[in-house]
Amino acid sequence: MMDNRFATALVIACVLSLISTIYMAASIGTDFWYEYRTQSPAENMSEAGRSIWEEFVSKDADEKTYTDALFRCNGTVGLWRRCITVPKNSHWYSPPETDMTTNCISFSLSDQFAEKYIEPGNHNSGTDLNRTYLWRLQFLLPFVSIGLMCFGALIGLCACACRSLYPAIATGVLHLLAGLCTLGLVGCYVAGIELLHRKLPLPEDVKGEFGWSFCLACVSAPLQFMAAALFIWAARTNRKEFTLLKAYRVA
């Protein structure tokens, strides 16, 4: 028989786990981890700006090329895609427009594991190992986090089928590891952005800030930690009380 305290703790832990999973999935799938804001994106789409757009959509675009475009055109960056804001009609013979549209380009799998250079865009400058591995980790860690939580949920379902709280300890440990992965993801992303901006400083009229996708990941981590604490507490305390009650009945 389960005490109401433990049942309540498990329900709260499951709700926290579900919310953190939704937040994490939304964070991974959206493109607003970092946002650049310039005062006049339309003016930047001059003749030079159009050539930058053409290079931005090119498969051969290097890090410096697409980062310059992000600076000039109100760009946003996610874990999977990069986006810039451009006029809907950007032909050279068209008058300036205020009607803007957002166009996005996905990072390929080879882009995710590509080497980062000490001087972005200069392949002869040598590999920047710090930025290279930070970029790879920020790509892998969210999937590890989601996988751990899903595996923990599977163990939780098995625990319900067995009518036992003890396997919930494993669910709590997996959520704890998932929270550490999410926290590591946030740290890797912040460090990667800071290192990039040291190499490519922001222009004076451009402001950069972390977006709401990044905030969702930041919120997801403490939710995972709280769910882990509740799972582990409920399982251990229930097991301890059951052991004491069994000993009392034997005596």
Automatic annotation (TrEMBL):
The record's annotation in InterPro entries points to: CLDN1 (IPR042356), PMP22/EMP/MP20/Claudin (IPR004031)
Location(s) in or outside the cell: Membrane
Give a GO cellular-component term: membrane
* Keywords recorded for this protein, A-Z: Membrane, Transmembrane, Transmembrane helix
Q: How does it sit in the membrane?
A: Multi-pass membrane protein
Domain of life per record: Eukaryota
Where are the membrane-spanning stretches? 139-161, 173-192, 212-235
Report the protein name in the record: Claudin domain containing 1
Organism of origin = Zonotrichia albicollis (White-throated sparrow)
